[in-house]
Amino acid sequence: MTKLFKFTAIAEGVSYLVLFTNMLFIKPSNLELYKTLLFPIGMAHGLLFIGYVILAFAIRANQNWNLKDLFVVQVASLLPFATFYVEKKYLRNA
Q1: Which of 1, 8, 13, 24 is the S-S candidate for 83 at Cβ 3.0 to 4.6 Å?
Q2: Phi and psi at residue 84, in whole multiples of 5°?
Q3: Is the pLDDT reported for residue 51 higher than 90?
Q4: Cα dist. 71→24, 46, 53, 60, 86 in Å?
């Protein structure tokens, strides 16, 4: 289960960055391409986000996280690049 969370953390971080790239660089130059890519990228990111949050709760006991660690892991899902930090710091043994 920890390896699945590790994969999900990385995939969620990448999908977040791809979503930002779509908004910041593609939208101003090509509105039609932006609209075409928005739904699949947004849906993938949304599913990965939900999976990340659920899996964090599921592996909490296995990883011996206290409430502060769980809070940090959950807040990381909201910040760009933070899931990579969580993967490196909290999941190094996986």
Answers
A1: 13
A2: -70, -35
A3: yes
A4: 29, 20, 11, 11, 11
Residue 77 near residue 83, CB atoms below 8 Å = yes
**DSSP label of 79:** S
Residue 22 has what pLDDT? 87
Report pLDDT digits (tens) over 18-42: 998 888 888 888 889 888 988 999 9
> Distance between CA atoms of 74 and 82, rounded to whole angstroms?
10
Nearest residue to 56 via CA among 16, 13, 2: 2
Buried-exposed string 27-52: b where 16+ CB fall within 10 A, e elsewhere: eeeeeeebeebeeebeebbeebbebb
Q: Considering the entire predicted model, what is its pTM? A: 0.85
